[in-house]
Amino acid sequence: MATEKVKRLLINFKTLEDFQQFKEVGAQELSMKEELEENIIENDSESPFYGIYYGDRLVARMCLYKIESKYDQYFDPPKGYLELWKLEVLEGYKHKGYGQALVEHAKSFNIPVKTNARQRSDDFWNKMDFQPVTYDPDRDRGENPFVWYPAGVQPQE
Amino acid sequence: MATEKVKRLLINFKTLEDFQQFKEVGAQELSMKEELEENIIENDSESPFYGIYYGDRLVARMCLYKIESKYDQYFDPPKGYLELWKLEVLEGYKHKGYGQALVEHAKSFNIPVKTNARQRSDDFWNKMDFQPVTYDPDRDRGENPFVWYPAGVQPQE
Protein backbone atom coordinates (compact mmCIF):
# COMPACT_ATOMS: atom_id res chain seq x y z
CA MET A 1 0.00 0.00 0.00
CA ALA A 2 1.12 3.46 -0.82
CA THR A 3 -1.52 5.74 0.65
CA GLU A 4 1.12 8.24 1.67
CA LYS A 5 1.87 8.95 -1.97
CA VAL A 6 -1.60 10.39 -2.61
CA LYS A 7 -1.55 14.14 -3.08
CA ARG A 8 -4.28 16.68 -3.47
CA LEU A 9 -3.63 18.16 -6.90
CA LEU A 10 -3.00 21.83 -7.44
CA ILE A 11 -4.53 23.54 -10.42
CA ASN A 12 -1.81 24.86 -12.66
CA PHE A 13 -0.84 24.48 -16.27
CA LYS A 14 1.34 21.44 -15.58
CA THR A 15 -1.54 19.63 -13.84
CA LEU A 16 -3.90 20.47 -16.67
CA GLU A 17 -1.36 19.21 -19.18
CA ASP A 18 -0.91 16.02 -17.12
CA PHE A 19 -4.69 15.51 -17.25
CA GLN A 20 -4.56 15.20 -21.02
CA GLN A 21 -2.92 11.78 -20.62
CA PHE A 22 -6.10 10.35 -19.10
CA LYS A 23 -8.95 8.93 -21.12
CA GLU A 24 -11.73 10.48 -19.08
CA VAL A 25 -11.07 14.11 -19.75
CA GLY A 26 -13.67 16.62 -20.76
CA ALA A 27 -15.72 19.62 -19.71
CA GLN A 28 -14.47 19.66 -16.14
CA GLU A 29 -10.81 19.94 -17.12
CA LEU A 30 -11.59 22.43 -19.86
CA SER A 31 -13.49 24.59 -17.39
CA MET A 32 -10.55 24.55 -14.97
CA LYS A 33 -8.22 25.61 -17.77
CA GLU A 34 -10.46 28.52 -18.76
CA GLU A 35 -10.83 29.64 -15.16
CA LEU A 36 -7.08 29.57 -14.74
CA GLU A 37 -6.45 31.48 -17.96
CA GLU A 38 -8.99 34.12 -17.00
CA ASN A 39 -7.66 34.37 -13.46
CA ILE A 40 -11.01 33.25 -12.05
CA ILE A 41 -9.06 30.73 -10.04
CA GLU A 42 -5.52 31.21 -8.87
CA ASN A 43 -2.56 29.25 -10.09
CA ASP A 44 -1.94 26.42 -7.59
CA SER A 45 -5.48 26.53 -6.21
CA GLU A 46 -6.52 23.25 -4.61
CA SER A 47 -8.56 21.09 -6.95
CA PRO A 48 -11.09 18.34 -6.25
CA PHE A 49 -8.54 15.92 -7.76
CA TYR A 50 -6.16 13.63 -5.95
CA GLY A 51 -3.32 11.88 -7.67
CA ILE A 52 -0.16 9.85 -7.46
CA TYR A 53 3.08 10.92 -9.09
CA TYR A 54 5.77 8.59 -10.34
CA GLY A 55 8.72 10.92 -10.44
CA ASP A 56 7.11 14.08 -11.78
CA ARG A 57 4.62 12.18 -13.92
CA LEU A 58 1.01 12.02 -12.77
CA VAL A 59 0.14 8.34 -13.24
CA ALA A 60 -3.15 7.97 -11.38
CA ARG A 61 -5.94 10.29 -10.36
CA MET A 62 -9.44 10.51 -8.99
CA CYS A 63 -11.91 13.30 -8.29
CA LEU A 64 -13.79 13.60 -5.00
CA TYR A 65 -16.85 15.78 -4.63
CA LYS A 66 -18.73 16.31 -1.38
CA ILE A 67 -22.46 15.77 -1.76
CA GLU A 68 -24.39 17.72 0.85
CA SER A 69 -26.71 15.89 3.22
CA LYS A 70 -29.85 17.34 1.66
CA TYR A 71 -28.95 15.60 -1.60
CA ASP A 72 -27.97 12.34 0.08
CA GLN A 73 -30.23 9.61 -1.32
CA TYR A 74 -27.94 6.72 -0.45
CA PHE A 75 -26.99 6.71 3.20
CA ASP A 76 -28.64 6.52 6.61
CA PRO A 77 -28.06 8.72 8.50
CA PRO A 78 -27.99 11.03 5.46
CA LYS A 79 -25.05 13.19 6.49
CA GLY A 80 -23.58 13.66 3.05
CA TYR A 81 -20.98 11.63 1.26
CA LEU A 82 -18.09 11.74 -1.18
CA GLU A 83 -18.80 11.06 -4.82
CA LEU A 84 -15.71 9.46 -6.31
CA TRP A 85 -15.22 9.61 -10.04
CA LYS A 86 -12.59 9.70 -12.76
CA LEU A 87 -10.53 7.08 -10.99
CA GLU A 88 -7.99 6.13 -13.61
CA VAL A 89 -4.50 4.72 -13.71
CA LEU A 90 -2.38 5.25 -16.82
CA GLU A 91 -1.40 2.27 -18.97
CA GLY A 92 1.93 0.90 -17.83
CA TYR A 93 1.21 1.79 -14.20
CA LYS A 94 -1.74 -0.52 -13.58
CA HIS A 95 -1.75 -3.43 -11.11
CA LYS A 96 0.70 -1.67 -8.81
CA GLY A 97 -1.81 -0.67 -6.15
CA TYR A 98 -2.21 2.97 -7.25
CA GLY A 99 -5.96 2.64 -7.77
CA GLN A 100 -6.31 0.99 -4.39
CA ALA A 101 -4.20 3.71 -2.72
CA LEU A 102 -6.51 6.39 -4.12
CA VAL A 103 -9.64 4.57 -2.96
CA GLU A 104 -8.14 4.04 0.51
CA HIS A 105 -7.44 7.76 0.61
CA ALA A 106 -11.10 8.49 -0.18
CA LYS A 107 -12.17 6.15 2.62
CA SER A 108 -9.75 7.81 5.04
CA PHE A 109 -12.07 10.82 5.37
CA ASN A 110 -14.40 8.38 7.14
CA ILE A 111 -17.61 9.52 5.50
CA PRO A 112 -19.56 7.36 3.03
CA VAL A 113 -18.25 7.10 -0.51
CA LYS A 114 -20.25 6.46 -3.64
CA THR A 115 -19.01 5.75 -7.12
CA ASN A 116 -20.45 4.73 -10.48
CA ALA A 117 -18.65 1.46 -11.23
CA ARG A 118 -17.89 1.33 -14.89
CA GLN A 119 -17.16 -1.28 -17.51
CA ARG A 120 -17.14 -4.43 -15.43
CA SER A 121 -15.05 -3.08 -12.59
CA ASP A 122 -17.30 -4.73 -9.99
CA ASP A 123 -14.55 -7.09 -8.82
CA PHE A 124 -12.25 -4.17 -8.06
CA TRP A 125 -14.91 -2.38 -6.02
CA ASN A 126 -15.81 -5.51 -4.11
CA LYS A 127 -12.13 -5.90 -3.24
CA MET A 128 -12.19 -2.29 -1.99
CA ASP A 129 -15.06 -3.22 0.40
CA PHE A 130 -17.61 -1.35 -1.67
CA GLN A 131 -21.06 -2.85 -2.17
CA PRO A 132 -23.58 -2.58 -4.96
CA VAL A 133 -26.84 -0.83 -4.08
CA THR A 134 -30.35 -1.97 -4.84
CA TYR A 135 -30.96 -0.33 -8.19
CA ASP A 136 -33.52 2.48 -8.19
CA PRO A 137 -34.21 3.73 -11.73
CA ASP A 138 -35.24 7.24 -10.68
CA ARG A 139 -32.26 7.71 -8.42
CA ASP A 140 -29.60 5.77 -10.29
CA ARG A 141 -30.64 6.42 -13.91
CA GLY A 142 -28.44 3.87 -15.60
CA GLU A 143 -25.55 4.19 -13.21
CA ASN A 144 -23.95 1.21 -11.54
CA PRO A 145 -23.49 2.58 -8.03
CA PHE A 146 -21.12 1.00 -5.57
CA VAL A 147 -20.91 2.44 -2.07
CA TRP A 148 -18.71 2.19 0.97
CA TYR A 149 -20.27 2.40 4.41
CA PRO A 150 -18.16 3.59 7.33
CA ALA A 151 -19.06 2.14 10.74
CA GLY A 152 -22.56 3.19 11.83
CA VAL A 153 -23.82 4.01 8.35
CA GLN A 154 -26.44 1.96 6.51
CA PRO A 155 -28.26 2.02 3.20
CA GLN A 156 -31.09 4.54 3.07
CA GLU A 157 -34.50 2.85 2.97
CA MET B 1 -28.80 6.13 -42.53
CA ALA B 2 -30.76 3.30 -41.03
CA THR B 3 -33.13 4.93 -38.55
CA GLU B 4 -35.88 2.51 -39.47
CA LYS B 5 -33.88 -0.34 -37.99
CA VAL B 6 -34.07 1.07 -34.47
CA LYS B 7 -36.38 -0.93 -32.23
CA ARG B 8 -37.59 -0.39 -28.73
CA LEU B 9 -36.29 -3.41 -26.86
CA LEU B 10 -38.54 -5.81 -25.03
CA ILE B 11 -37.46 -7.16 -21.68
CA ASN B 12 -37.10 -10.92 -21.90
CA PHE B 13 -34.37 -13.41 -21.21
CA LYS B 14 -32.97 -13.16 -24.73
CA THR B 15 -32.64 -9.37 -24.45
CA LEU B 16 -30.97 -9.66 -21.07
CA GLU B 17 -28.58 -12.26 -22.44
CA ASP B 18 -27.85 -10.00 -25.44
CA PHE B 19 -27.01 -7.19 -23.00
CA GLN B 20 -24.13 -9.24 -21.59
CA GLN B 21 -22.20 -8.62 -24.81
CA PHE B 22 -21.93 -4.92 -24.02
CA LYS B 23 -19.19 -3.39 -21.92
CA GLU B 24 -21.43 -1.02 -20.00
CA VAL B 25 -23.57 -3.50 -18.15
CA GLY B 26 -24.36 -3.38 -14.47
CA ALA B 27 -26.96 -2.72 -11.83
CA GLN B 28 -29.65 -1.62 -14.26
CA GLU B 29 -29.55 -4.85 -16.28
CA LEU B 30 -29.27 -6.96 -13.13
CA SER B 31 -32.31 -5.23 -11.67
CA MET B 32 -34.30 -5.93 -14.86
CA LYS B 33 -33.32 -9.60 -14.69
CA GLU B 34 -34.43 -9.89 -11.07
CA GLU B 35 -37.72 -8.15 -11.76
CA LEU B 36 -38.36 -10.51 -14.65
CA GLU B 37 -37.50 -13.61 -12.62
CA GLU B 38 -39.73 -12.50 -9.78
CA ASN B 39 -42.56 -11.57 -12.15
CA ILE B 40 -42.42 -7.95 -11.00
CA ILE B 41 -42.28 -7.06 -14.68
CA GLU B 42 -43.82 -9.11 -17.43
CA ASN B 43 -41.91 -10.94 -20.07
CA ASP B 44 -41.76 -8.71 -23.17
CA SER B 45 -42.44 -5.51 -21.21
CA GLU B 46 -41.15 -2.43 -22.99
CA SER B 47 -37.78 -1.31 -21.71
CA PRO B 48 -36.06 2.09 -21.75
CA PHE B 49 -33.58 0.58 -24.23
CA TYR B 50 -33.51 0.95 -27.97
CA GLY B 51 -31.39 -1.21 -30.20
CA ILE B 52 -30.44 -2.38 -33.65
CA TYR B 53 -30.39 -6.04 -34.62
CA TYR B 54 -28.15 -7.56 -37.25
CA GLY B 55 -30.06 -10.73 -38.03
CA ASP B 56 -31.12 -11.77 -34.54
CA ARG B 57 -28.02 -10.35 -32.89
CA LEU B 58 -28.33 -7.12 -30.92
CA VAL B 59 -25.34 -5.12 -32.13
CA ALA B 60 -26.03 -1.62 -30.83
CA ARG B 61 -28.08 -0.15 -28.03
CA MET B 62 -28.83 2.96 -26.03
CA CYS B 63 -31.01 3.81 -23.06
CA LEU B 64 -33.35 6.82 -23.01
CA TYR B 65 -34.80 8.17 -19.81
CA LYS B 66 -37.28 11.05 -19.64
CA ILE B 67 -36.24 13.68 -17.12
CA GLU B 68 -39.25 15.60 -15.83
CA SER B 69 -39.41 19.35 -16.24
CA LYS B 70 -38.98 20.04 -12.53
CA TYR B 71 -35.55 18.38 -12.69
CA ASP B 72 -34.56 20.10 -15.92
CA GLN B 73 -31.41 22.13 -15.23
CA TYR B 74 -30.24 22.33 -18.81
CA PHE B 75 -32.91 23.70 -21.12
CA ASP B 76 -34.99 26.83 -21.55
CA PRO B 77 -37.94 26.46 -21.58
CA PRO B 78 -37.43 23.68 -19.03
CA LYS B 79 -39.99 21.24 -20.36
CA GLY B 80 -38.06 18.08 -19.63
CA TYR B 81 -35.62 16.20 -21.80
CA LEU B 82 -34.28 12.79 -22.70
CA GLU B 83 -31.17 11.56 -20.96
CA LEU B 84 -29.31 9.30 -23.37
CA TRP B 85 -26.84 6.81 -21.97
CA LYS B 86 -25.26 3.43 -22.58
CA LEU B 87 -24.89 4.17 -26.28
CA GLU B 88 -22.66 1.37 -27.44
CA VAL B 89 -21.95 -0.52 -30.65
CA LEU B 90 -20.36 -3.94 -30.48
CA GLU B 91 -16.87 -4.47 -31.87
CA GLY B 92 -17.08 -5.55 -35.51
CA TYR B 93 -20.17 -3.44 -36.09
CA LYS B 94 -18.68 0.01 -35.55
CA HIS B 95 -18.38 2.69 -38.24
CA LYS B 96 -21.51 1.45 -40.03
CA GLY B 97 -23.82 4.23 -38.86
CA TYR B 98 -25.53 2.27 -36.08
CA GLY B 99 -24.56 4.74 -33.38
CA GLN B 100 -25.73 7.61 -35.54
CA ALA B 101 -29.05 5.84 -36.26
CA LEU B 102 -29.69 5.46 -32.54
CA VAL B 103 -28.90 9.11 -31.85
CA GLU B 104 -31.14 10.23 -34.74
CA HIS B 105 -33.89 8.13 -33.20
CA ALA B 106 -33.46 9.90 -29.87
CA LYS B 107 -33.69 13.26 -31.63
CA SER B 108 -36.82 12.17 -33.51
CA PHE B 109 -38.91 12.62 -30.34
CA ASN B 110 -38.20 16.33 -30.83
CA ILE B 111 -37.49 17.16 -27.20
CA PRO B 112 -34.03 18.11 -25.92
CA VAL B 113 -31.48 15.35 -25.44
CA LYS B 114 -28.60 15.31 -22.99
CA THR B 115 -25.78 12.82 -22.74
CA ASN B 116 -22.56 12.44 -20.80
CA ALA B 117 -19.93 12.23 -23.53
CA ARG B 118 -17.33 9.73 -22.52
CA GLN B 119 -13.74 8.93 -23.34
CA ARG B 120 -13.01 11.49 -26.00
CA SER B 121 -16.19 11.01 -28.00
CA ASP B 122 -16.61 14.77 -28.47
CA ASP B 123 -16.08 14.58 -32.23
CA PHE B 124 -18.90 12.07 -32.58
CA TRP B 125 -21.31 14.24 -30.60
CA ASN B 126 -20.38 17.35 -32.54
CA LYS B 127 -21.12 15.44 -35.74
CA MET B 128 -24.52 14.54 -34.25
CA ASP B 129 -25.26 18.29 -33.80
CA PHE B 130 -24.83 18.08 -30.05
CA GLN B 131 -23.07 20.90 -28.22
CA PRO B 132 -21.00 21.00 -25.05
CA VAL B 133 -22.50 22.96 -22.16
CA THR B 134 -20.80 25.52 -19.96
CA TYR B 135 -19.52 23.35 -17.15
CA ASP B 136 -21.21 23.85 -13.79
CA PRO B 137 -19.51 21.80 -11.05
CA ASP B 138 -22.61 21.51 -8.86
CA ARG B 139 -24.86 20.47 -11.70
CA ASP B 140 -22.46 18.46 -13.82
CA ARG B 141 -20.25 16.89 -11.13
CA GLY B 142 -17.50 15.56 -13.35
CA GLU B 143 -19.72 14.72 -16.28
CA ASN B 144 -18.98 15.89 -19.78
CA PRO B 145 -22.47 16.90 -20.90
CA PHE B 146 -23.34 17.31 -24.55
CA VAL B 147 -26.84 18.45 -25.44
CA TRP B 148 -29.04 18.71 -28.47
CA TYR B 149 -31.45 21.63 -28.77
CA PRO B 150 -34.58 21.23 -30.90
CA ALA B 151 -35.87 24.39 -32.56
CA GLY B 152 -37.01 26.97 -30.00
CA VAL B 153 -34.99 25.55 -27.12
CA GLN B 154 -31.99 27.30 -25.59
CA PRO B 155 -29.49 26.70 -22.78
CA GLN B 156 -30.86 27.46 -19.34
CA GLU B 157 -29.24 30.55 -17.81
Automatic annotation (TrEMBL), chains A, B:
One Gene Ontology term of the molecular function aspect: acyltransferase activity, transferring groups other than amino-acyl groups
Keywords: Acyltransferase, Transferase
Domain of life: Bacteria
EC number, as in UniProt: 2.3.1.-
InterPro entries hit by this protein: Acyl_CoA_acyltransferase, GNAT_dom, YlbP
Domain (N-acetyltransferase): residue spans on this chain: 9-154
Enzyme class: transferase
Pfam families: Acetyltransf_1
NCBIfam families: PRK13688.1
Protein name, entry field: Uncharacterized N-acetyltransferase ATL39_1159
Organism: Sinobaca qinghaiensis
